[in-house]
């Protein structure tokens, strides 16, 4: 169910702070769009954020928000349906999200491209900071 919904977003153009399937979304908009398809209304509204928000040194706001509504998964074994949060650089907040479609693939949105399913390369594995599961949803 999670992967099917995430795949239905493939081809959606990147649009900062958007979450409209086939119209535009960013990485957070992809995950919140899948949440809305699974559960309906979002449990909290995303605060306004600029593209460089995580460089401001304010802890781990994305991971903290995820921990309020998703189930943190231990270990490093990626499973279909996991929400993956990546850290671009050491000592900077994790700020990129994706949804795993299997142990070696994910769907994500990033600036300059449409939502796509890609391989989880060694570079992505090195940057993986957190894994969460949608509560009560199976894939």
Automatic annotation (TrEMBL):
Keywords: Hydrolase, Protease, Thiol protease. SUPFAM superfamilies: Cysteine proteinases (SSF54001). The keyword Zinc does not apply. Gene3D superfamilies: endopeptidase domain like (from Nostoc punctiforme). It comes from the Bacteria. Residues 1-135 form the NlpC/P60 domain. Coiled coil: none annotated. Belongs to the peptidase C40 family. This is NlpC/P60 family protein. Pfam families: NLPC_P60.
